Known about the structure:
The protein is an alpha+beta fold. Helix content is about 40%, strand content about 20%.
Amino acid sequence: MNASTLLTNLMAYSFQAALLVGIGTVVLLVLRIRHPKALLLYWQMLLGACLLLPALQPWKEPIDPGFLIPPDRTARVEAALGSVSPVGDRFPAAKLLAFALAVGGGLRGLWLILGLLRLNQYRRQAQLLNPPPLSVEEMQAKVGIVAQVYLSVELDSPVTFGLQRPAVLFPFGFLEMQPATQKAIACHELWHIRRKDWIFTLLEGFLATPFWFHPAVWWLLDRIRLCREQVVDQLVLKTIQERKLYLDALLETALARRQPKFTLAPLFLSRHHLTQRVASILREVSMSKTRLTVSLAVASFAVFLTGVAGVKMFPLESAGAPETQSTQAKPPGSASQGILVVAPGVLAENLVQKVKPIYPPEAKQRGMQGEVLLEVSISATGDVENIRVTKGHPVLVLPAIVAVKQWKYRPYLVKGVAVPVMSTVPVNFTLTDSGGGPGEKTESPLIRLNSDAMAANVIYRVDPVYPLEAKQKAVEGEVVFEVTINEQGEVSDVQVLSGNAMLVSAAYEAVRQWRYTPVLLNGDPIRAKSTLTIRFTLEKSRTSASEVPQNANPKIREFQIVPSDLTPEQHARRLAYADERFATSDRPGSQTDRGRVYLAWGPPDQIESHPESTPPFEDWRYWNRSEKPDQGHFDLRFVGEDYKLVHRTSPAQ
């Protein structure tokens, strides 16, 4: 497992542990479990769950054998390998961070070992009390445990440690205390020995060493230590039956303590736990056995569900791809450390011979598309030597490898010397509309045009037929579509955005037959998307359905009806003339007011142009443009440098 994978897994595991501890704490607060012994068991169970997480989850393989993309889309995933760097230093930041974490864990382990050595040093320098004071002998008889008792000038709080030969180190002022206080303190330490708490403290310290950086783990350990002390406090109270006396002993020890010393052993008093321990002693905690059992069961189930969710949200990765994924196995001790890694784009610029892969028949039949990512080694002569699969569907991997092995590159030069390099090569498999083979280009870009720009590209349109039911019910309104045209100018997709249900079908059937001039980007046809509004209007003598560009001049909307008998060739000629004759500095002629009128109604019957006037203007007159004599004549005036339509007159007005 390399440094990058190790660091990724450590981060994922840290998130899992943080989620488990966080949710576990919230559940505990909701259930209001306050019994010290139950709390200790719960926190220890939570720590065990955190430590067992890596062994209880499926590891995510770096190669996804189920890499399958639906036929209507493709994906491209590239590894950003940087510009030029040695393979052995491909992830320097990850290695440095992994090194820092390892050093921190090592220092923490060393600190624990030094704590053990210091305990032994304290015992060697301490004075053995043989026989121990009568108060200690009395507590030994009540607790049922015998331990060696020492006095130490180095300590200001009692310390208990040892498994086979347990020892209690009291501070030198212990003998000056009242006998009742001596009994309370000795009873506390002897209960720690009887419960073998020291060995649990030792194990918890070393098990948490790899997670020295994780605040959730440290907080969990702190909860365990607090609950362990609270459990012992309850045992002491049952033994000596003196609550006030025991509290006085805690407070007296707290006042006598100076700077705390690090020892890998349970201390009689940890100052930041004092308030909580005192509150626990003063408060009688009563929970029925049934409620306690149910609460712990519910909390455990919640922790289990959280663990399942955590390993799915933050999965760990396995060590890497199996050796069989490489076309050539690298022999041990090979000189791969001298190969430079270049970015995929840099390598692609040096490609001089490319062989397209053969699309597997099985992949065609199953409609499989996708991309195979290969990590390739290029020799100093430009030949492809080693290939390792990074990602790809197994059906597509073999033809991709066969093709890439035949590729040829220009030698990569460093200071004028050809050197071997390594990079990532994507091989894309795409099914064409006709079911053809793989293409090296993905589907053309898709851009969004405003409705005016899209309307200017129409070369053939079919007017919708006004639905009979809508006529009978006098239904009028607009139908708004989102229309996508392909590289050939055909309507490839129509999505309804709004409109009356009685009008949608007729508008849809018409718009599907429209044809557009292909939209070009850098000279290449591309797909385009825009909104299209079809208006259905009932009049006294006729009905009409027309396209309404969203951003069109309101005065222009009356002239957007293109005669149904206009052929595509006639519309194309009008479009070409409008673009040539009425173009301005910022838009093609077909998108100006004059161009729109010309596209809709053709050449006017009379034009009066006044370019020298201030501002310049033109008057257009159309005659006999309607079956009704009083509605077929109208005059239009275009004013200004861009000749905006500002006025219309007709005998009908």
